[in-house]
Amino acid sequence: MQIPSRFTVAVHTLLVLCYFADTQKTTSEFIAASVNVNPVIIRKTLSCLKAAGLVSVKAGSGGARLVRDPSEVTLFDVYRAVDSVEGALFHFHEHPNPACPVGKNVHAVLDGRLEAAQAALERELQGVTLADLMRDLNQRL
After folding, report:
1. pLDDT in single tens digits along all 141 residues of the chain
2. One-character DSSP codes across the chain
3. Nearest to 2 by CA among 85, 83, 80
4. What domains sit in the chain, N to C, each tagged with a CATH number?
5. Distance between CA atoms of 45 and 15, rounded to whole angstroms?
6. CB 18 within 8 A of CB 141
């Protein structure tokens, strides 16, 4: 299973908004050229980011901008904004065989570990901000 590309498209979009904030009108077409996707995908992404309170978007070709300081926006915020995963990251098969010694105990053995793995991922995402990514990006330029 993979986290949908909506997440990385959204992060890429936000980095474009940060990087070009003072030099370029960041329309969906402009952002789409950087991400190399159809502008409709960017418009959908911007809609999710706007609903989460991360960006503002001007109708028409007005462009988008980040409304929070990059140091206040974490990857976890983006992850949640674009519904990368609804509920549990790991989907458990529905009906393990209760007559089997493995089947009847697999949830007890595995559930807690999978929940811990998801919590670790979410903690890691909470520890990385757009400002961190911009710093990394600027070091590569």
Report:
1. 567 789 999 999 999 999 999 899 999 999 999 999 999 999 999 999 999 999 999 877 778 999 999 999 999 999 999 976 667 778 778 889 999 999 999 999 999 999 999 999 999 999 999 999 999 999 998
2. ----THHHHHHHHHHHHHHTTTTS---HHHHHHHHTS-HHHHHHHHHHHHHTTSEEEETTTTEEEE-S-GGG-BHHHHHHHTTSSSS-SSPPPS---TTSTTTTTHHHHHHHHHHHHHHHHHHHHHT-BHHHHHHHHHHH-
3. 85
4. 6-140 (1.10.10.10)
5. 13
6. no
Token pair of 92 as six digits: 């458990």
